[in-house]
Amino acid sequence: MIREPVIRVLVVDDHPVAREGVRRMLDGQPGLRVVAEAADGAAALTAVSEHRPDVVLMDQRMPVFDGVAAIRRLTGKYPAVRMLVLTTYDEDHDIQRAIEAGAEGDLLKDTPSPMD
Fold first, then answer.
1. What is the pTM of this model?
2. What is the mean pLDDT of each run of 10 residues along the chain (116 residues)?
């Protein structure tokens, strides 16, 4: 039996409802599995170390330290992990800061679910 490759995802957002929504959306997709969640940039560093995700979906604005700071640290230490910014604003200047820190793109929080 051939097993489909699974992309392991870490969801980082300071709002529990947002994390749960993203988890439910992604876990329903073939080939994706949310392996962990984190509520801030510092917790994201620990979660990447413990769970070794392939992709991190990182909120920009969070307590402790923000998504851009976490992306900068994570891409320096784990260059194979892909970073995407979760954002509410599609014209936010912080997206550019996140890209410069090492994010590969952004995902708007109001993007329709593929299950819709």
1. 0.88
2. 82 94 89 95 96 95 87 95 84 78 83 57
